[in-house]
Amino acid sequence: MQKTVSPASLCGTLDVIPSKSASHRAVMMAALCKEDTRLAPLQRSRDIEATLACAAALGLGQHDAPQGLRTLDCGESGSTLRFFIPLALDGRGPVRFVGHGRLMQRPLSVYEQLFVPRGVRWALSGDALTVEGQLQSGEYALRGDVSSQFITGLLLALPLLSGDSVIRITTALESRGYVELTRRIQAAFGVTSRWADGHTLLVPGGQTPVSPGSFAIEGDWSHAAFYLVAGALGKAGPLTLRRLCIDSTQGDRAIVPILRGMGARIEETSQGLTVFPSALHGAQVDVTQVPDLVPVLAVAMAGAQGESRITGAARLRIKESDRLSAIASALCACGAQVRELPDGLVICGGQPLHGAAVDGCNDHRIVMAMAVAAALCDGEITISDAEAVAKSAPAFWQEYASLGGQAR
User: Fold this and answer.
1) 66 shares its domain with 200
2) Pick the catalytic residue: 90, 220, 252, 292?
3) Domain encompassing residue 60
4) Average pLDDT for 31-57
């Protein structure tokens, strides 16, 4: 599906959708409980639907969980796949994980190197991975610069074992905030862990998740970033976002200080977080902790005066698309000056942009970023794969229209 987007400034008020990152974790913790849990609000995106389906297929929290081969379809969700692999090592038989798109091309060797020496059967072929074995408590040493999702997967499974465990991180930990998000949500279900130092997590065993009855899922800072950039680049007036947790551990909350550092006026008000039309200037940003911000941050930099540089983004080469190449190509098609680095981008901003046909690369973040970029252009942008937004934000185009966006 294509969307043709006309130049328009966004303004108004929006209730930000529930955090996809928090929703994955809350769904899994709720599924591990014997009692029911009310999760609200819950955004039923494709990724969250995959996690709900996998929780049911694996039989989380069920004493009479199915035996034998179980198949878990993870869609294109890296979180779903990496979070469930340790839980699938329950000794009840093989589990076959199915992925779509580029999912099975994304790194999984961190788990393979941990589990195979401990007797786990690991068979990756094409778009399917089959694992079988029994997860054991103990010490697990793994890299922290591939994805924090591997650490979250261990944190979800290890407390359920009888013995205590240690997670030792052997490199700098990227996306640390999302590990803290996992721990915060687990604590709401009575499951705890603690840092012995900056690289060592102590995980007591024998813990049983207990439902809090209800759990409120905070707003999504990754999604809010698109509208914060849109509000700063616009000319129509302020844009206010509600339902955001200001002290969230979501790493992408960093979009606020990043944009402020570029000259954006963003204020906390009684109504929410309000961004005003602003004159932005270039910046140098290391996105090691916040890689998902890169597509929309690149758009902000294209609209800023002067040169900007993004570094620390090498792992974006293997996402739903090669996001560095995808956003560079899309912005260049509109007349922006963007140069790729092995781990980032150099953007010479403030240049007049024009309408163009751009490739959404079946990547929700590329599609939404280029919808925001339309405000910088003097003509229409036609974006392919516009339906990809359903991966994280099925109502994106309705939200966009409610704030004055024009897409058909």
Assistant:
1) yes
2) 292
3) 20-216
4) 95
